[in-house]
Amino acid sequence: MSHLKNHSRRRFLTSSSLGMLSLAGFPGLLSAMGNMHSTRAPEGLPKMAPNKASANFKADVELELYCRSNSVAILPGQSTLIQQYSAKLLKGPENTLTEIPGSYLGPIIRLQKGQKVRIHLINKLAEPTITHWHGLHVPVVMDGPPVYAIDPGERYVYEFEVLNRASMNIYHPHPHENTARQVYNGLAGALIVNDEEEAALGLPSGEFEIPIVIQDRLFDDNNQLVYVRNMHERMMGFYGDRILVNGRSNVKFDVASRAYRLRFMNGSTARIYKLAWEDGTPITVLGVDGGLLESPETKAYVMLAPGERLDVWADFSGRSEGSQIVMRSAAFSGALPKMASRMMGGMMNVNSLPVGSDYPIFTVRVTKKVSDSPKLPGQLSKIYRYSPSDTANPQKPIPIAISEAHMALLLNGRPYAYNDPQDFERIKVNSIQLLEIFHSHGGMGMMGGMGGRHGGMGMMGGMGHRNNNPESGESMGMGGGMGMMMTMAHPIHLHGQSFQIVSRSIINNAADDYATVSEGFIESGFKDTVLVMPGETIRIIKPFQDYKGLFLYHCHNLEHEDMGMMREFLVE
Ligand code: C2O
Ligand code: CU
Ligand code: CU
After folding, report:
1. Which of 50, 230, 243, 332 has its CA 20 to 30 A from that of 359?
2. Are 385 and 536 in contact (CB under 8 A)?
3. CATH architecture of 35-194
4. Ligand 1 within 6 A of 554 CB?
């Protein structure tokens, strides 16, 4: 299929190349032509011409990023076929790229705020791909949405200035309907931004700053990756039965008795973790998706959904040589429909590591006693807290309605379609907007209501309370029918600038389950992905500055994303 597509595209280019020549002196026209160079792919998604390097962009950092197939040793015995990023630094500071030895993960890309970066993405896979810089505030053509996917052998050039504050971001593929599988096969990496505010804090760095990318995988008897085998595994998200950290199984970190900075990323396609130190030591949180908090926060546990990041201060200085501490995912409930959890745990018997069960993630071993350790700063950053009065729409939040009815997972009532904005998905550039993410249980009728009210939020709230009926027992008591069966947690991610969480509210029926996770959310920092539990409504405030165009928002349960639980905001 992609062969045919290429073929017709090439023919189109040849027949229009004469016209191209005569337009060459008019950049505006040329870029308009760039858009015309799309042929409708069979799935209805246009294919854009790959972006090229521009002569007047003076890069401080330049690198080539390859996607290719490879094999690595993950488990003892036979090595595993994977897909993998690798990179070559062409220009810039030597510490820009750090390999994680023996891992299928891409190298850590370290950038400085203010740097101008050019990245040549080179597709050596046998299928289309494109790379997205999850968390970075960049123009649409540099953001890697599915329409910019390149074919095997093609090259896509990204050029952007790093506007983000210090933060850990993710680079991962974003091709149409194939994001989850490519990430699952190994295509992912960390992109760390540093800035002066962070540097002034003197946080643990170098060997004392440890990336912790958590993923789950399922292997067959020959150590090969197993992926989605049926509709159920797609609907619920795909879950492996083995936890990998930085691409390895049974990970142990050897540390000295001092403070460390642990940079967590949930790189799983669907699995949600409830991070907790086994011995009850609280987790000291320095930052989240969009960088440092104002001051450290201490939590008994922290929820980490796919796409989310967490910056943790871990001080081992009181610990004796030879001691160990385990980071676990602690027990919680409510993330999956009850029926589905039963199927996964019992009847279908496919997963020995159910979501929400209690299991180890990695072990830390204190192997060296040292006397000196940095001190935890009391203040980390200055953050301006948005309030609804800063927004263009304090009374009329932009809806992000999650619908789970009739075996379809949708946002705002429609599956993903390129350039298909509904009125309320059009946003003025350089505005700050209030958004409300909520579960819609009424199918089309409800969506109609939503359009009318420009978010029938009042309606949703009312509905939740009407259904607040204790006799519903284990059925969560929401909506009824398929809606009820399917209600589950969704990590909702918005491309572009990070946002702040204004409020969370939960309907009472879900409260028992909710109590198992509710202390694990961090609301004070900048986020780009937020876990929305069943029955939960979350208000966020997000700036839409600098760049016009179609910016994705979607569920970061990547199986859901690929099923079409994705939409675009047209920033204009
Ligand atoms: Cu992490 Cu649109 O993705
Ligand atoms: Cu993203
Ligand atoms: Cu989802």
Report:
1. 230
2. no
3. Sandwich (2.60)
4. yes
Q: For 522-538, what is the mean pLDDT?
A: 97
CA angle (505 as vertex; 501, 506 as ends), nearest 5: 140
> Which residues have beta carbons under 5 A from ligand 2 (an ion)?
134, 495
Taking only the tens place, the pLDDT of each residue in 455-483 is: 333 333 333 332 333 333 333 333 334 44
More confident residue, 111 or 232: 111
Query: Which one of 1.10.260.40, 3.40.50.300, 2.60.40.420, 3.40.50.1100 gives the CATH number of domain 388-571?
Result: 2.60.40.420
Instruction: Note whether 35-194 and 388-571 share their fold.
Output: yes
pLDDT in tens, 307-356: 999 999 999 999 999 999 999 999 999 999 876 666 655 444 457 899 99
Closest residue CA from atom 3 of ligand 1: 134
Query: Which residue's CA lies nearest to atom 1 of ligand 1?
Result: 134
**Amino acid sitting at position 354:** P
**Contact indicator for 336, 344 with CB cutoff of 8 Å:** yes
- CB contact at 8 A, 263 and 270: no
Q: Is 67 left (phi over 0), alpha (psi -120 to 50) or beta?
A: beta
pLDDT, mean over the chain: 86
- The mean pLDDT of 191-198, rounded to a whole number, is 98
Taking the CA of residue 135 as reference, the ligand 1 atom at the shortest distance is: 1
Cα of 133 from ligand 1 centre, angstroms: 8
Domain spanning 206-368: CATH 2.60.40.1270: no
132 in contact with ligand 1, CB cutoff 6 A = yes
Ligand 1 close to Cβ of residue 174 (< 6 A): yes
